[in-house]
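Write out structure tokens for NADP-retinol dehydrogenase.
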Amino acid sequence: MLVFLGLLTSFLSFLYVTAPFIRKFFAGGVCKANVQLPGKVVVITGANTGIGKETARELARRGARVYIACRDVLKGESAASEIRADTKNSQVLVRKLDLSDTKSIRAFAEGFLAEEKQLHILINNAGVMVCPYSKTADGFETHMGVNHLGHFLLTHLLLERLKESAPARVVNLSSMVHHVGKIRFHDLQGEKNYSRGFAYCHSKLANVLFTRELAKKLQGTGVTTYAVHPGIVRSELIRHSVLLCLLWRLFSPFVKSAREGAQTSLHCALAEGLEPMSGKYFSDCKRTWVSPRARNNKTAERLWNVSCELLGIQWK
């Protein structure tokens, strides 16, 4: 036992000594687009913290008018104030958006459409992760309700403005864990069998399938869409899991910073020449492989139709 503990201690010590070099290796791709955004309008959900905040910071730095759409307005105002001071861009605004409540989503969209005549970039960044079982205000399992259905409805409500502003882009944050996700149509709300970890994976698969189907429906409109894996990033999303919090603390020197995690979102929002890859999945600023389930057109179409039924909407 003492020998094992000694070896473990030596191994961890070695990891921490070499952490800066390991982190540099795993930092991933960097957005190299030089596009400036004066006069452009951007909406980012969950941009009061983490990846979304760093994405908002960079887009504001490039001159965009950035809307931070988040549930906690006070945190949003704090983030916006910091970004305005950092970028010298006064056009960083905060609006209330609770993706777990369709009334809040509709209220946000109504207010935004009354306020803005253009929308060039929508980044569906917000999300929840490994939550104990609960339901949204509308009775949806929380992961599927917030991560998928909430953004599905928001995109639907803002889509005409995106089309009117074309070329425009929709970026959906997913995750590599979509590889172990399934769309369990017989138990979409997790009432029969629930695992908080798998529930998150299922919702991330839904994000990829939504992106795939949305791209088909947007052909010829000038609006393109992309799914993104940001990497393993230090994030507030793990706050619901004690185990993940401990693992993150232990391995924190090796995971991406929020700024590094924002790079692929920025790439898909800004890089020129991505139009032919609409509907595809990106990681480290390049197109990458998705699971067989994420390539299933029948599942994507069925999920689309079920989502419309659950939300009571019809896409034109």
